[in-house]
Write a structure and sequence with these properties.
Mean pLDDT: 91
Helix content: 25-40%
Number of strands: 34
Bound molecules: CU-O-CU linkage, copper (II) ion
Shape: elongated
Strand content: 25-35%
Distance between the termini: 46 Å
Structural class: alpha+beta
Low-confidence stretches: 642-648
């Protein structure tokens, strides 16, 4: 069973505990003794089931169960035991039972069950003292309130007035004490929560040393060479961001935000060693724009993170990006301000850099970004192509959406030559496999054109044909639905990659989840990292030359395509299964529900870098932080507000 399945199972059992405890309480309050007894037994069994589910889940990692083990489950077990002890005798011999301590105890167990369930969804990992105290206070308070509401003095055994007065006072004393405790605990919890509230400047050292550098370099000084390498040329472009109504290649027109009036924006191509120089002009995008070179390890001043590496380019403004095209491969660019809106509406384009010397250049080389416009999945780049039989063909697949896509190639065996722009080492030929492409990710497929047509399918539908001659038809397996996913972790051939075993000087753990957190100064049901939302997530601090390791844990039921700017990361393992194939260097990796990824990289590109979920709405909802190099500062306000409606 995957951890994702265990997480769902645990949620299910937790809900069932809530249902059975409430059912037992209500039937008991209604004096349906028989039914109440059966339900009480059921509730106790479900409670035992909950304990078992948590124990199983704990086997997948402490991050998955911490708040359950420390609070949710103990609270439920204690309340359940108390309920059983108090209710059992009354249910077995109803005549003996007067008063309502049993009912109140069973209700309280139900509240404890609710608290355990809610705690996971609102607080999650890590459990804070504040969150815990508030939960306990709420359960106790609800129990007290129930005692109040259910009080039936007329059914208490008759007692002499004097004694009645004494017991009443005693009851009031106890109730007052408990109520006072509840208030104090709740207030203490809230206070603890507030005082622990992280400031934007909080730093996570990842187990490494604190600041060591005295002189500070502003991020705006981190520019690369301003001339091409010998033999290279200067490639100048002007990209004008503007609104436009664009007719899609296949289908309707959309009201888009564009670079230059087209969807996607103008393709930027270069040969290794060229100098890329792009002037961005904002014609009429009120929200503001920037350009981020996704996956390209540009000097930090060119990274396009609004508020961090530059000011957002407001309407009427301009900004020049200049960097050397040192890395060959398939990349893309997109706005990095209000990107959850801007990228979706069309502010993106492709960036392809070809090697200066290529052994066997493709005869047909297609750049194929996929994007969803108003619910329609569109593969740009043309649906029909020709390539003579025997010629090499390269398909550069780029996922510019916030969700993964599935590709399959029917009609020819192929290799995945590159992932996220970086060549794989001795990739083998594969056929009848599907490829899952993470949000933001790229796969380069290479094949030799056969004598019959080849079809590329996208999410199960044929989206592109390559034919050996005009009008050539032929049998191509169209049904790709049963094909298994290619496992890149064991694809290609291993090399002696030193980073695989190098001890990490800094180790950061990122636990991804949903919960209550502050996002851009307002409370929200956020997408969180370690229980916090942007910009309250501590910055990760590294020093140049560090070997850095990330453990990325997904506690949620959604997929999170994790993306670090400025550095590719090497995949070490997924759920403890090591990468055994070609070294896999990626800039976006899809962390599915319940998964635990270990990745490493060398801190070799100084700057202040965004580190975020590339499901852009998730980033906007808080799932974003910064990786900062020791000694690098930003002259901007330092918070990358994800979008419109939050200032800027
Ligand atoms: Cu492609 Cu920070 O993003
Ligand atoms: Cu996400």
């Amino acid at each position: 069973m995957t951890a994702g399945t265990l997480i769902i199972l645990d949620h299910g059992v937790a809900l069932l505990a809530v249902a059975t405890w409430f059912a037992a309480a209500v039937t008991m309050a209604l004096r349906r003794t028989g039914a109440a007894f059966v339900l009480l037994v059921a509730a106790l069994l479900v409670t035992a089931g909950r304990v078992a589910a948590v124990v199983f889940l704990a086997g997948r990692g402490w991050w998955f169960v911490q708040e359950k083990v420390l609070l949710g489950v103990p609270l439920l077990v204690v309340a359940s035991a108390a309920a059983a002890l108090l209710a059992w005798p009354r249910l077995r011999a109803p005549s003996a039972g007067r008063g309502n301590r049993g009912v109140v105890a069973v209700f309280t167990a139900a509240y404890a069950a609710v608290a355990g369930f809610v705690l996971t969804f609102l607080v999650g990992y890590p459990l804070t003292l504040g969150g815990g105290l508030i939960a306990v206070a709420l359960v106790a308070g609800a129990g007290l309130l129930t005692a109040r509401v259910l009080a039936r003095p007329e059914e208490e055994p008759p007692v002499p007035p004097v004694l009645a007065e004494v017991s009443r006072r005693r009851f009031l004393g106890v109730a007052g004490g408990v109520a006072g405790g509840v208030v104090v605990a709740g207030a203490a919890g809230t206070g603890a929560g507030l005082s622990a509230w992280p400031r934007a400047e909080a730093i996570d050292l990842g187990g490494g040393r604190a600041h060591t550098r005295r002189s500070a370099v502003p991020v705006t000084d981190l520019r690369g060479p301003s001339t091409p390498a010998p033999g290279g040329v200067r490639r100048a472009h002007t990209l004008v961001a503007r609104k436009a109504t664009v007719r899609l290649e296949a289908g309707p027109s959309v009201d888009a935000w564009t670079f230059g009036g087209t969807l996607p924006g103008p393709p930027i191509t270069a040969t290794q060693g060229d100098l890329i120089e792009v002037e961005l002009v904002n014609h009429d995008i009120d929200e503001g724009v920037t350009l981020h070179w996704h996956g390209y390890d540009v000097p930090c001043a060119n990274d396009g993170a609004a508020g961090v590496t530059q000011e957002v380019v407001a309407r009427g403004g301009r900004f020049v990006y200049r960097f050397r095209a040192d890395q060959a491969g398939t990349y893309w660019y997109h706005t990095h301000h209000a990107s959850h809106l801007g990228v979706r509406r069309g502010l993106y384009g492709t960036l392809v850099v070809k090697p200066r010397h290529e052994a066997r250049p493709a005869h047909l080389d297609l750049t194929l970004p996929v994007h969803t416009f108003d619910g329609a999945v569109v593969l740009s780049g043309g649906a029909e192509h020709l390539a003579p039989a025997g010629s090499p063909v390269r398909l550069r697949l780029i996922n510019t959406d916030s969700d993964p896509h599935r590709f399959a190639l029917a009609g020819a065996p192929f290799t995945v030559a590159a992932v996220d722009g970086r060549d794989l080492h001795r990739p083998g030929e594969v056929s009848e496999k599907t490829l899952r492409l993470a949000a933001g990710g790229r796969h380069d497929l290479v094949f030799v054109m056969p004598a019959a047509p080849v079809a590329l399918s996208l999410d199960g539908r044929a989206a592109l044909w390559v034919r050996p001659a005009a009008g050539a038809t032929g049998a191509v397996t169209q049904d790709v639905s049963g094909w298994p996913e290619l496992d890149l972790l064991s694809y290609g051939t291993a090399t002696r990659e030193p980073l695989r075993t190098a001890p990490a000087g800094r180790h950061f753990t990122l636990v991804l989840d949903r919960g209550l957190a502050m996002v851009d100064g307002a409370p929200a049901y956020a997408q969180t990292v370690n229980g916090r939302g942007h910009p309250s997530i501590p910055h990760q601090l590294v020093a140049e030359g560090d070997v850095v390791r990330f453990t990325v844990v997904n506690r949620s039921l959604e997929t999170h395509p994790w993306h670090l700017h400025g550095h590719p990361v090497l995949i070490l393992s997924v759920d403890g299964r090591p990468s055994t194939g070609s070294p896999l260097w990626v800039d976006t990796f899809d962390v599915r529900p319940g998964e635990v990824w270990e990745v490493a990289f060398r801190a070799a590109n100084p700057g202040v870098w965004m580190n975020h979920c590339h499901n852009l709405p998730h980033a906007h909802q808080g799932m974003m932080l910064q990786l900062r190099y020791d000694g690098v500062t930003t002259p901007f306000d330092g918070t990358h507000t994800a979008g419109a409606g939050h200032g800027h």
